[in-house]
Design goal:
CATH architecture: 3-Layer(aba) Sandwich
Helix content: 25-40%
Structural class: alpha/beta
Strand order of the largest sheet: 1-10-9-2-4
Largest sheet: 5 strands, parallel
Number of strands: 11
Low-confidence stretches: 1-22, 194-198
Length: about 200
């Protein structure tokens, strides 16, 4: 697997390159090398075109417990929770790690489904940070037409008001776009298909 051998170089290149990003009004963690962004509502419009690939990069538990956009073509998590997850008091949650199969799963899915490097790709995560990271990785792999949904599936947290601290501002769900708790078999993470247990 040639891609896996240069994955650390891809990640390092993404970290270095983000220091030169243009001003977008977005937080740094939501900015991408390609500079291609859209809101969930704008993504829903773009995704009327069946030739656009829609990839959810959230973790498996997120899809299982918060749902998935009905239009999502495939789920390929950028981050995974280790078997022995460690609680992080700073984050108020469990630490996750980079999915070592992300690159392989992505390229395998594209090859098996007849896509090439020119396919328009829309990435979604919870609130726009992981989709930006995934977009940068894909850019380093040669995919230039990659869009990040800046408000994600669940949206941003409210800073004040009755919903303070809750993800009620924007995002796929809050925009009233079509979603479901059921993950279709064609959406399921390809590396899990045929696996027993876990």
């Amino acid at each position: 697997m040639k891609r896996a051998s240069f994955l650390p170089a891809i990640l390092a290149g993404c970290l270095l390159a983000t220091s030169g990003l243009a001003e977008t009004g977005l937080p740094a963690k939501k900015q991408t090398l390609n500079g291609l962004y859209m809101t969930a509502a704008e993504a829903a419009d773009m995704l009327q075109d069946d030739n656009v690939l829609f990839v959810d990069v959230r973790s498996r538990p997120e899809l299982a417990f918060t749902g998935v956009a009905e239009r999502v073509d495939v789920h390929i998590p950028l981050m995974v929770m280790p078997e022995k997850a460690v609680y992080s008091p700073q984050k108020g949650g469990y630490r996750m790690r980079f999915n070592p199969d992300f690159v392989l799963a992505f390229e395998s899915y594209l090859m098996e489904n007849g896509y090439d490097e020119t396919v328009p790709i829309v990435l979604i995560c919870r609130s726009g940070a992981r989709s930006a990271k995934a977009a940068n990785i894909l850019r380093e792999m040669g995919y230039a037409n990659v869009w990040s949904v800046t408000d994600g599936f669940e949206g941003d947290k409210a800073k004040d008001g009755p919903g303070k601290g809750q993800r009620v501002l924007n995002g796929w769900k809050n925009a009233g776009l079509a979603w479901s708790y059921a993950i279709r078999s064609d959406q399921a993470y390809p590396m899990d298909l045929g696996a027993s247990g876990s």
